[in-house]
Structure formats: structure tokens, C-alpha cells
Amino acid sequence: MTNNIIIFIHLMAAAIAIGSMIFAVVLLLPSMKKLPEHKGPEEHSTSYKSLELLAPTVFACLLALIGTGIYFLLENYTAQVELKPGYYDLFGVKLVCVVAAFFLSIYQTFNLRTRIADLDLSPENRKLVPETIEQMKKITKLTLTAFSLALFFGIWMARY
Ligand code: HEM
Questions:
Q1: Which member of 18, 30, 83, 107 lies 3.0 to 4.6 Å from 87 by CB, making a disulfide possible if both were Cys?
Q2: What whole-number distance in Å separates Cα of residue 140 and Cα of residue 55?
Q3: How many angstroms is it from 106 CA to the middle of ligand 1?
Q4: How far apart are CA 107 and CA 111, in angstroms?
Q5: pLDDT by residue (tens digit) across 64-119?
Q6: Could you give the CA distance from residue 35 to residue 47 in angstroms, rounded to a whole number?
Q7: Confidence (pLDDT) at 85
Q8: How far is CA 160 from CA 10, 15, 55, 88, 96, in A?
């Protein structure tokens, strides 16, 4: 039962992170370009709002994935001796993807996002918004790639 709950949380976190990244950078933002240009403060634009929310969401999901992944390993440590050789090779490759996603997500949440946060308090940062939004879109695409690879190796591990 514990395993089912852990894997349920693991999969929900992966689904929320990957789903929201796909929704934002593949579906929503490209279709927003076809609409009339946004007038008014930058912080009221859809791209600003969606990326501002996306970055911490993905980071929180990643923390949940790391927590549940480690908990799964601890919970099943006695069964780990019966695993086929090669299981930990897949795990190693998966962790490389997770580490990449982790640093990209940290950069996105704690550097790029904070650069353009609280524009009412620091209006001089308004000029950074268009460039930072473009950078955030690029970083989100890279994070999405790392997440998708980790997802693939996770599924492979579970069926190995
Ligand atoms: C981007 C982050 C991650 C994604 C997208 C991801 C995705 C997945 C997926 C889809 C599965 C398959 C579940 C199943 O079908 O039963 C899985 C299993 C697993 N993941 Fe992750 N995972 C991530 C991070 C982590 C981390 C950081 C750890 C460990 C520290 C971890 C450890 C595991 C373990 C131990 C399993 C179970 C494999 C088995 O059943 O033998 N995962 N993961």
C-alpha cells in the first residue's frame, strides 16, 4: 500500500510538472502571439503571469519527485538485492536528467523569476521583462526535455 501511495505522488508530481510546462510553452504562449499585442503594464500580461507561476510549480514538483523517489528506495531497500544488473545504470542516467532539471529549475525560479518580480517596488526592472520572458521560455523547454527523459527512464526502471 505504501508503495502505491509513494508512486501515486511521484507520478502526480511528474504529470503536473510536465503537463503545466507543455500547456504553457507549447500550447498557451505560442497561441497568445496570434492575439492583438498586450497594452498596459508588463506584469499584467499572460506570458508574465503564466511563467511567474510555472517556475515555482515545477520546482515544488521536482522536490516532491526527489522526496518520493528517495522514500521509495528506502522503503524497498531489502528488495533491491534481487534487481537485475543494469537497474542502477538506468537509475544513474535518470539521475543525470534529474540533476539537469534541478539546476535549470533553480535558475528559473530563484534567478530569472526574481529578476522581474515585484515590479511595482522596483519599476526600473520593467525593461528587463521581454528579454527575461524569452529566456524563461527557453529554460522551460530545456527543463521539459530533462523531465521527459527522466520520465522515460523512470518507466523503464519500473518495468526492468
Ligand atoms: C524529473 C524527475 C522525475 C520523473 C519525471 C520521474 C518519473 C518516474 C516514473 C514515470 C516512474 C515509473 C513509475 C511506475 O511506472 O511505476 C518512476 C519510478 C521511480 N522513480 Fe522517478 N522520476 C523522477 C525523479 C526521481 C528521483 C529524483 C528519484 C530518486 C531519488 C526517483 C526514483 C524512482 C524510483 C526508485 C522509481 C521506482 C522504480 C521501480 O519501480 O523499480 N525518481 N519515476
A1: 83
A2: 8
A3: 20
A4: 5
A5: 999 999 999 999 877 777 778 888 999 999 999 999 999 999 999 999 999 999 88
A6: 12
A7: 85
A8: 18, 21, 32, 10, 19
| Ligand 1 pocket member 154 (CB < 6 A) | yes
User: How far apart are the C-alpha atoms of 35 and 155, rounded to whole Å?
Assistant: 39
- Please give the single-letter amino acid code of residue 21: M
Under the phi-then-psi rule, with left for phi > 0, alpha for psi from -120 to 50, and beta for the rest, what region is 35? beta
C-alpha cell at 68: 518520493
Ligand 1 atom with the shortest distance to the CA of 73? 35
Is ligand 1 within 6 A of the CB of residue 69? Answer: yes
Residue 106: the pLDDT is 98
How many residues appear in the chain?
A: 160
